[in-house]
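Box 3.1. Reading complex inputs
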Amino acid sequence: MRDIEFFVLHDGEYPFVPHNDEIGQWSRTNFISLPTEFYDGPSARRMLDDFLDTFVLAEKLGFDGVLHSEQHNGPIGLSGSGLTLSAYIAAVTSNIKIAAVGPIMNAYQSPIRLAEEVALVDQLSNGRLVLGLPMGTGMQYHSYGNMNPAFARERWNEAHELLIAAMTRPGPFDFQGKHFHVPYVNLWPRPVQAPHPPIFIPAAGSRETLELTAKHRYTYQAVLNPRAALKRNCDLFRELCEQNGYEADPRQISVNLFVHVAETDEQARREVEPHIMWLMQNFFRSTFQDSFPPGHVSLRSLRGMVDGGYRSKPPAEMTWDDLVRERWIVVGSPETVAAGIEEIVDELGAGRVCLSANNGTEPLWMIHKSLTLFAEQVLPRFRPKGAAPTWAREPQPIPRTRAELAVRSQPRRQPQAEIEGVGIVETLTAHVPELRRAVRDRLDA
Amino acid sequence: MAETTTAPLWPFHTEPEFIEVDGLRTAYRRDGAGEPVLFLHGAGQTRRWLPFHQALAERVELLAPEHPGFGDTPLTPEVDRIDDVVLHYDALVRAFGWERFHLVGHSLGGFLAAEFAVYYPERVKSLTLVTAPGLRVPGHPMADVFRMTPEEADGLLFNGHAAEYAEYLEEGDPGEALIHGYQEMTMLARLHFNPRYDVKLDHRLARVTAPALLVAAEDDRLIPGAHMERWAELLPNGRLEVLTGDRHPTGHLPHVTEPRKLATTIADFVAAQAGA
């Protein structure tokens, strides 16, 4: 029996932008330089509203998780801060896993700030945070002021080391890196998940990234690859896990799919085709120079791309049939979609699937229809019979009631204060006359 | 110039000589006799001995190394800031036994030359910067070389006349050229992505008292002319000269479009400062 975890993905696009045949009058693409004259406040707020409501809907429908991305300086996504958005989702949902992909680590001045935000959101969500650590698209590096693509990988690697150390090593300690020197690493609060929230690494398939993901037993989040390259990457990833002395868990491979379900195959295509084609033609459209600013990929990976390992065709040129053949999209009746996903997860050995909720520009009512059909008629086929979402089956990282927390509390000290004429008292009881007494002498008395 | 033993890979290609500089196998080309001139190249047009080099070497002793990460000098993790490059060139000229010399730089090379002169003003007999970035000049943003497609870059570098300079644009196998170009741009990004200027130069250039020639173009579409005017303001003995084009107004690459005229301008200036 398959046991696949399903995340609902939404990037929060602002879709009211010029089509690619006319955008050149204002900007090369929708990335980083589309003038704000195209920003309409009320429209943006409506889009944010649909974006946020989708996550609430996903929990109610019984999905395992939600996933959102961090985008900067443009209409590609209206969340410039993955962890801020996650804090909101934590407040409006109760149980569903929340995957923030990203934070873009290199956009942070220091990974200490990131560690603090991760720990806080993990607390606020009762340990529901999944942490995605993308390198950030090349485009983002042009628009942040503190990021240099030439140092992207080495700075990311060092930030990752420091982030994990901050969450797992007892503090305080001194961290001495090339990019970060922090004399006092001392994280408070700490994440509730041990040793830290699960980590997703989105990767187009560079060997360096797959090696790191395998080494740390993270989840490889496969993005936008042709079918054959995706299979190769998944096989390579499993091989790299073996080289690290373990067998990959299927949950370590997560595949992104554009999914849409309707009553029939014809109806599903009719509903989603305009949205999918809009997305491919407008939001995945970029130049080589924008996507790969110098240093953003290693020379080794670049050589791999030049030799044909990247994409056979830019997304903007892909036809509907290309998208079906490359299996970027899985569209149809519940039967068709279930069969399509079955084939993909079996071939790749994937244990996680991220479904695009809005496929670019779908309005909330259409998302509602497709996700409901999916949840009721497709999703149950990928879980053990009658099984609940993974969040209801897995142990809670931390109790949610004060009653349980109090039983487990073992603080090393009670708060004390010195009261004139009384001595050192315990503040939590000293307001009661018979308990207002010195509990000990001053050590330096 | 040393005899080339292998067939050129593209027009103007020559095999370089190499010298070990602080452990880095550094490529260079050298020719001519007379006043010693160290020429620092801009980003691009590497692995070539151009008509400009040839013309200049007819009047001076020209030493034209390739920066770390450019041409045939490898990218090294040890050199990733401007001051690393300055120290690299200090070591290089020491290796050649040069005490004092004339320093000339085009574009990125001009930026590096100015930085070298700030650190070692007493070594510089004269300083020539040709269409060079490096200063913060509010209101006159440079074109963004890191986002340009090759076609856009050619358009801005040659002001629409790229087709007339096709031989300068040939660079062999397209895949290899792309990878090599990416490596050079990576080195450029290390030095120049953010920020694209050194605000310290506003104050530090006062240290450079050597005679300085600032060669501006008539219509530089990459680095606005205001940048060259600013260099001239900040360098205590700086003089601005606009190099005019015979075929069309000069742009960012005067060493390509007006090689002999630029070489003459530089050589005349060097000759005038020979006694410095």
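In summary: Chain B touches chain A at residues 80, 144, 146-149, 175, 178-179, 182-183, 185-190, 193-194 (CB under 8 Å).
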